[in-house]
Records
---
Amino acid sequence: MYAMLALPLLWLAIFAYWPMYGVIIAFKDFNVVDGIWGSPWVGLKHFERFTDSYLFWRLIKNTVVLHVYELVATFPLPIILALALNMVRRRWFSRWVQLITYAPHFISTVVVVGIIVVLVDPTTGVVTRLTDLLGLPTFDLLGNPGSFRHLYVWSGAWQTMGFSAIIYLAALTSVDPELHEAAVVDGASRLRRVWHIDLPAIRPVAVVLLILNMGSILSVGFEKVLLMQNNLNLHASEVIDTYVYKVGLEAQIPQFSYATAIGLFRSVVGLVLLVVANSIARRFAKSSLW
Amino acid sequence: MTADQMAPDDRRIGAAAVAVQDTRQDKIVTICVSAALALFAFAVLYPLVYVLSASLSDPSNVVSGEVWLWPVGFSLDAYKAIFDYRSILTGFGNSVVYAIGGALLATALTLLAGFPLSRKGLPGKGLIMALFVFTMMFNGGLIPTYLVVEQLHMLNTRWAMIVPGALAVWNVIITRTYFQVSIPEELHEAATMDGCSDFGFFWRVVLPLSKPIIAVNLLFYAVGQWNSWFNGLIYLTNEHLFPLQLMLRQILIQNKIDASGIQDAAELLRRKELQQQLKFSLIVIAAIPPLLIYPFVQKHFVKGAMIGSLKG
């Protein structure tokens, strides 16, 4: 048994726990010659540099605003979709709607951003032609800090909401059909049954997903942000993770220690928020992760 | 959750409702909900249909904005243009290698981790599980992981694309739950009594009984590998190793097209016209492999997500 576990554990040690040891370079001035252990300790220097940086509040704001906007806009959608699908009685119809709405989940981030690029292209894009028809002014949606967040959030909703509905549909199958029958006999309308029977069945799942979401408040869909980012929308699109990438790997002179410190700051805040959200949920909603 | 599993319940609710007669109001609500769903499904599908139609249209019709839903002036030029770019073909080949290699390695690791962790009496199981789950909540981050890959001399090799991201803890949990449910402890005990080793049991009994979960893992990892680009961005500098998605990023998003080797000015102009068109056909080419696989595995994906959500 343990022999079987050896390979996965070896992988885990190398690619998950070795990097965790490497995190100590956040408290050092890392240089390649001395290595991780040999580099001199500098305490909290890099953290102080980050919190004192003029970019600090802008990064925090961009990250949190983007995340909260995404949460508020996209959290209820899969729930509504699942409830609606559950109301439809024609099987073939609900199966087709599911097949179509899951599909974008399997498309890569690069392709999704590529689709956005061709759709909102300021000369030939279909969105541009539509605004022309309606007599609205044309402007470059991707090259505009004001529209970056909307594009990011709603394209994300397009991509994920169908697939996120699965988990709620699963919760809805556990509802005892006799509850519905009894409610019908008592004269409850369809909407009332959704409100009093279906919605409570979904609630525990929704709470758990909400907690998980709290833990990632300082992280956003980093790969997609990086892909959608350009010099024109940078003011709204620079988030903590993209900054870490730029400082640590993309820069001419990579600053490994500084970038690691910023990343660690984000991870620790995330972990703390997760624990706090979990204990609140256990107290008030009676469901939690652990 | 699939429509098939839902069906019996639905019919019962339906029968009960018919016996009492749907009120007029209920009927209106149901019709409105169905209409909204149909409209919504169309809205989700539209960008995909538009891109497909544009890729099959004549480039001049796309530029002049005549394409709304169906192809205008059918043409395959955009697809022919793909074959003029060596780098795209190389990327496609690389992605196939990464998807297959990555899926095989990751699935093997996941099964090897999932089976022992599904057995009841294994000492230290809780601790090992905690080691796995903790990595979901906290990780070393970008730079320390990069340094590890560098120290292993994996930078700029195909291994960097396959190995560091191999294991997904979520899949280990789903796989473990599958084994817990479908491989009873008694079966294992009986095999042990007959002198079968743990590994022999795993190889000869567990694996043949676990085709669905193996398929789910393979496809999940393959799609993930096919769609990934960021590991390529940070670990690779050699363009001959780039996966397709990284090539796509250059052409679709950064508008970089390799025009070297084209001397003829007229040829260059034609290329420029085709460039916009090329984006559409590339999106189709890159999106099609996962979308072709997906209807066949949808049921399994859904089951996996369900097991994970209910018992994880």
---
Amino acid sequence: MESLSNKKKQLEIKPLNFWERAYLPAIAKGLSITMSHFFKKPVTIKYPEEKREFSENFRGMHSLKRDEQGRERCTACGLCALSCPAEAITMTAAERQKGEEHLYREEKYAAVYEINMLRCIFCGLCEEACPKEAIYLDGDIVPSDYLRKDFIYGKDKLVEAPLNQ
Amino acid sequence: MELIDLLIKIALIIVIFVISLVVAMYSTYAERKIAAFFQDRVGPNRAGPWGILQPLADGGKMFLKEEIIPTNATGFLFIVGPSLAILTACIGSAVIPWGQNLEIGGRVIPLQVTDINVGILYIFGVVSLGVYGIMIGGWASNNKYSLLGAIRAASQNISYEISMGLSIIALLMVTGTLSLGEIAKQQHGFWADGYFSWNVFKQPLGFLLFIVCAFAETNRSPFDLPECETELVGGYHTEYSSMKLGFYLFAEYINMFISSAVMATLYFGGYNFPFMDLIHSPNLVAILGVVALFIKIFMFIFFFMWVRWTLPRFRYDQLMDLGWKTLIPLAIANIVLTGIFMTFFK
């Protein structure tokens, strides 16, 4: 039968000649190859002292952003939670009280904002869904931990550090 | 024998014992480091600067591990196995000439524990005893993988001892003595009577056969079938844990050190080095000789490791084919050629 790809190649098995049967030239060749690697620079990145550089569009840990005056941008609209395919995001909204104008940008804010890092697949859809540019996946790799409950990150870990402090 | 001579002997024995243990210890470190370099990695670098405390950490780990003796194992023989392995590995160093005689205060101190006139036969005896440690340990474990590993080790060692012995016979025809001290003395300097004085230049084929057999006898790759992980779990030490396992692993490295020393002595001039006649102080020559011998030994150890990280493991039938159908005929041919050469050209 003719082959579809037309890439057929007939191989012939030649009997080994004397030097091939004696192994030694092949062994010497192999030894020279390994020796050439002996003097090469190691490709190891000594984590955690050194870190591999991430690409520009790397998606790491989430951060909740603040605006120019240091107020939280998030208005707890819930679009991120809705867009999340892994259902990793939950939040509880609250109304801004008088005297809290310097903390929250709009009248509504997220009193509780939790992301389960074990569920998150770092797809970035929350980032795209957010109308207020409040969430970005611009952090580092999420660190390891011992307990499942410790992977549910609250606002203490997610919100950006306040300005000028 | 005077008391002082006895004390000197005991001190020499202790020094050699400690040196072989330290060399074996740091061979494990060197193996890991060299393996790393061959594979473009860094190797152990956490324990101490450049990881030089790694062997100590490994030893500490081995001592602190739980000691497990399987219920159905033969208790006494289970302990005898690793003990025998490490014992036979250590006693091989007794006949190796580590250097020329030192003269301190008019007293001649030989740097060889004992120069028995059957030194090579002693080495052979020790080497063939080494297989008992593996065999007994593998059998006493009462585990099919251990037993298979032990059987492989035994048949491999017996097969390769033959060609090793035959390659040595050709060397003995050249040197005319069985004493290692005498053989080392004959290879004085580097150039004598218009030819190289080291035996490797007189017996190149014999050396090649010997080094192949040495790889097989020390169970090093590419002949490490007794501990072939892919087929036999861990080979003969599958059931071993804690320091008993440590002894098996350690014995392999001591064996490597001793066989490197034997190869250096038999074929690479032992403690002799080029231009040694230009130095007039005999003590300095002796000390430099010891240094030269150790450099040769380390080169061989490096070669052992180099080969280990280059060549894949032989299949079992290939191993037997190589041993019986290639090495033994070559060794016999080498004896015949040596005989013809000695009859007609000397």
---
Amino acid sequence: MSNTETISKERIYFPGIASSAFEHPLDRAALEALRRTPGLDRLLKMLSDWGMERFLRAAYTGDALRVSPRQCSRLYRDLREACAVLDVTEPELYITQNPHPHISFFGMHRHTIVITTAMVDLLSEEERLAVIGRELGHIKAEHMLYRTMALLIAEILANTSRTILLPGMILTEAMLYALLVWFRRSELTADRAGLLIAQDGNICVGALLKGVAGSQKLMDDLNIEEFVKQADVLDDLEEDILSLYYKFSLVRWQTHPFPTYRAREIKEWEKSEIYQKILRGEYARENTEAGKRVCTACAATISNTTFRFCPECGAPLDPVHVQHDIRRN
Amino acid sequence: MTHATDHLDPSEARRRAYREQQAEIYQQLQTLLEPGENLLGFTRGRIAGGFQGKLFIGIESFFVPYVNVGLTDKRLILQHLTRELDKPSRNQPHSFPLPEVINIAFTEADAFHEIDELGRLSVQLLDEQSCRLRLDGAGACDDAKELVEVFNSLSTRHHTPQSPTQQLCKECQKVIDQPVKFCPYCGIKLAVEQPLQEAATSEETPDKPSETFTEAVVETAIEVAVVVETVAEVVVEVVEAIVEVPVEVPETVAETPEVVVETAQAEEAPHAEETPQAAESAPNPNDITSWDAYAQKVIAEQNALRPEGGERTI
């Protein structure tokens, strides 16, 4: 692995893709339950826009670097590319000076991604695309909105249940634990989004690995396969009860799963039939009109974006037109 | 007192012990097979994957984690073993139909390569589930590697398009999920799909006639040459009978493909020089009324002289 790679490979785009196409099954179950809650999502979006979003945007505009076509244009191109692949409305991107490699996002109404300089320095261009893709996955699945909704509901329930002392405390703890389990699953959804953008499992795992133990001096000496194997070793620790307890206590209040597990999940999903089908252009769509093309020879309508020839007459098709500029929020 | 095994190399002793274990695994798995089902690969391992991994297989995995793993042409079988590993447990075995198994992979588990005897077998299933096994011992690891190889060769068969609407482009090898006239990936015209069984029989028909024009021409030429050779032999015999001297057969006729003319060759060439003298005892052509009748007479005489008494036909 090195930092000298350039984005050269031809990517497959997924116009109109719905987040349900790549959501982790457990994440999807929680999201679907929350999506059925009437009205709360709109209220939260409005409150977020008036409150935290405006505050943080003001803070980052004053204190960080906003990426644009004229400011760090290479990074901006990465962002546009990632948005085009996953068909996501372009968020704002800020860089902050920080020695800790980190990337995060905020916002329900207008989304914003914040990446630290250490992260930019550490990753190759392909890996940077994958980590931006992860955040776009969160945005696409509206995790921020639904996480906030879930926390709000949990808070209300916890406040009411505290009145019944011990059982109430146990209930609150259990609820929080369940929510964190879902948060960890939603990270796996985001990893899948990253894979859809990078379209190479090794790149995604490489980015994770560098986040865990990336050192500029060891960059060419990192072994992805061995890192993935660590997940199995971690599983083996559950053979004895004490290790099982320690592992549970480590992960219990975490919002992210162990990176080794994430790496293994990425590699497994890469081999899965679902991922292969998405690459072939068969995926759930939120916009059925997106990416549709009409054959100039026989006027047949083709919805599969991976097709290069008309299946009816064999005439070559125009490449899928991806609209970059009009999608900025 | 010394035993025969005292001088055995430890690795050889281990190998022998594993051979016995292999026989045991094979025997135990055979009891689970349905009629017509063949065991193609097997190994023995311990269910891993932590708490969730065991729970996926079943509660019994916490108590009887050791399993025999068998791969047949239809499914992957996990047969629980008792704690002593000597016989199958009373728990029901688990089986996964092969079309539901996406991938089986073997990986070496010992990163330090101090003991090359620890491996992992991970089975990935269609419904985003996976099952992991830990393998102890070089024999189990070798067997697992073989099992993976067999699965990989089988999986191409199981994961080829099976749905009636799916087809495989022979040019670009892409699976096409909808009925189309042209391959949407490479643009070539797709042939009308033949029923799979029909296509298979036409390919496997034995002793099929020549498929290409060249082969047909060569076969015809050989047949013609054989006929010509036989005719030539008869004519030579007739003429020899008439002139009572061996006749040199022109090479163009004699050297037909795959035919050896048995008549006079180089050895008899000296006799050819005597032809003028021999010609003196030849019958008078005027005595012969019909050449055909004369030829038939000569053939009849020769057939009568043959020791096996077989008739010669043209």
---
Amino acid sequence: MANLKTSSKKTKAQSMGMHTEVLTGKTQQKFFNPDEAENFFYWGTHKVDFNKRTELDVKDMDCKEANNKIDELMSEGYGTIVIKNPQGKHSLGVGILNKLNLIFEGSLGYFGVGSIDGPIVTVNGRVGWSCAENMMAGKVVIEKNAGSCFGAAIRGGDLICKGSVGARTGIDQKGGSIVVAGDAGAFTGFMMQRGRIVILGDVGINLGDSMYDGTIYVGGKIGSFGSDAVEAPMTKNDIEWLTRKLKVAEIGNNVNLSKMTKVVAGKKLWNYDALEPTERKGAI
Amino acid sequence: MCGIAGLIHRGKSSNVGEELQNMLQALKHRGPDSTGYALYANNDGQNFIMRFKVGENVGEGSTSVNEDESVYDERKKLVDKKLSDLGATIMKEEKLTPYSYRYEIKYGKDLMWFSKAIESIESVEILSIGKSLELIKDLGDAITVSERYGLNKVQGTHGIGHARMATESGVDIKSAHPFWGYPFADVSVVHNGQLTNYWNNRRALENKGMRFMSECDSELIAVFLAEKMRDGATLEEGMKQSLTGLDGVFTYFVATKDSLGMAKDTMAAKPLVLYESDDLVAMGSEEIAIRSILPQEIDTYDPFDGEVKVWQI
């Protein structure tokens, strides 16, 4: 079990407005035990070599054919795959569960690279709605703009957009981080539960509406705060984390991080009444 | 769900019929029930183009009542007589399907009065009146409708279209988009979304003398904008007022003889992807619609919540 009682971690997390209480009862979680790693099989994964590179032109393929072909290439050990002519097709690059260097030379449609767990993805174009939905781990970099629901329900990993994103970015986010160099639309961080969102530009109305937990940092103007989203003071830990994360994202060199607005959950909504006693203690 | 698409060429004409056909066909999965086009063609601008139907397509999937085709001819004769009574001259007529016609007419008086008179004939609906607007809608996907009406050779400056998945009303032509902005010549609207204050708005607008032909909630947008324009608002002003006057989720396009506009509700609940260059604006519910006419790598973006944009040819 992960030890969430560690005081230094707790202090750090609290200073950044994060959830710290130990989960018990119905919400108890079990974690991967490294001692049993040799017995662990992750279905659908392949051992690949990053130095083994190939190109795949998907111009005349539908998404199922293209995804099957990517899977086939991974099974042959290719660790770097360059996708040519994605041309806005939907659901490309979904369900990749192993390390992979995946490069799209063009734009993706809806649900691009959804439900991934581990690959490093670069999109040299734009992405449509719900990019990287349910991502568990890995890094996704979008060089241009992204549509709505960017990073919906992600659980981990780094999702980076170097342009602007649409509405409901990070909706239902459960972990990981989303970093946006430009602006974001309405309802950013809607019902987010964990994780962090960084928007260097402006955000639309109802920022952080009904968020349970997590942290949102905004560099520009805020259209309005959503229900139960409140401003919190920036701490040294926030600045350190932002500095590190923006370096990873390779954006925001000139941003004055101390001037950013930090937004967390006020934890006053009805749902906190339904928490178990130990969780309620942390919510009040 | 529904899919919408639109494009406007600035400073030139193009084969907008084929372009819009390709865009809408790419969105077929969003709306398989019916497809509609509002094309702004290179007509001579002398006469009004009136497209109307005297019955419904009762083919596979239609929710319309089957009628004997002989009633269509009877209704067409009544339309001809009514036109004569109104002082309109038919310059050219084309029978496109057993139930729909395209007339070029010479007429110089009030269009609202004119439209009311024509539509007083049972089951007759004017789909559009304008000097450049060619509004076509029917059951089937984009290619089916385009081939049925010979649209893929239409040259023009701009157009909007709709692939419909029927949710709020029947699978029939009268509920299909685009909707004509009655009684304004050359105004058309397509919509993706649902409007939740339809009946309140409809009752209020009907009390002000506006006309509804269907029970499709999307028709409200056309009537809402027409009423604002009747009261002196510009198209853009009317569209901005729609952001608060209409409740629900929507992305819609509106076109006039020389402009194309888009509006997105304040929650940005419905998708829209937009490409804009100096000589072309193309937009659709999904990027693949734009890619169908611009396969090369381009920069596109999603307009934000509450955004209204209008472009001129």
